[in-house]
Structure formats: C-alpha cells, structure tokens
Amino acid sequence: MLWLAALFLIIFICHMYIFRFNDSEEGKDERGREIQHKTNNMLYGILYIGVILLVVLVDYFEIIPIEYLPNILLWFVLSLGILGSIFTYINKNRKNY
Question: Could you tell me how far CA 12 lies from the centroid of its own chain?
C-alpha cells in the first residue's frame, strides 16, 4: 500500500510541475506555448494509440480480460502525466528548440 501512495505522490508532483510551467512567465511566452503544444500533441497521440491498442487486445484478440480494462485505462492515463512532465522538462531545457 505504501508503493501506491508513493506512486500517486509522484504523479501529483509531475502534474504540479506541468501546471507550474504553464502558469509561469516562460510558459506564457511564444516558446512556452510551443512547448505546451508539442507536449500535448504528443500525449494525445500516445493516448489515442494506447486506447486503440487496448480495445484491439480486449475485443479482437481477447488477450486481456474485459474486467481489467478500466484499471489498465486508469493507470495508462495516470502515466501520461509522468510522460508529460518528462517531455516538458526535456523540451524546456533543450538549447535549440
């Protein structure tokens, strides 16, 4: 149970990093808006591909039982927050962006 609390704390910190960047002066200028757009575009693409892949694995190939689908979707969406903070950090610290 401790690992679950630690994981939610990490996810919360990652989301706070993204929100703090979006509200900062750097996030409001032209470069910051471009970083936000690029990060959101990548995350929506990953979400789209992930959901399609899960539906295919559940419905067509029946590899994953349907009872696990809500849990897998929950963890997948929560992990997108961690990926989003990583992409934001990488793009923010890139010199030639």
Answer: 12
Q: From the centroid of its chain, how far is CA 33?
A: 17
Tracing tokens 């067509």 back to the chain, one arrives at 60
Condensed to tens digits (0 to 9), the pLDDT of residues 50-73 reads: 999 999 999 999 999 999 999 999
Rounded to whole angstroms, the Cα distance separating 56 from 50 reads 10
Residue 38, H or E segment = helix 30-55
Do residues 88 and 43 make contact, with C-beta atoms less than 8 angstroms apart?
no
Q: Which two tokens stand for residue 1?
A: 């149970």
What pTM value is reported for the model?
0.87
Any idea how long the chain is?
Answer: 97
Cα–Cα dist 38/95, whole Å: 16
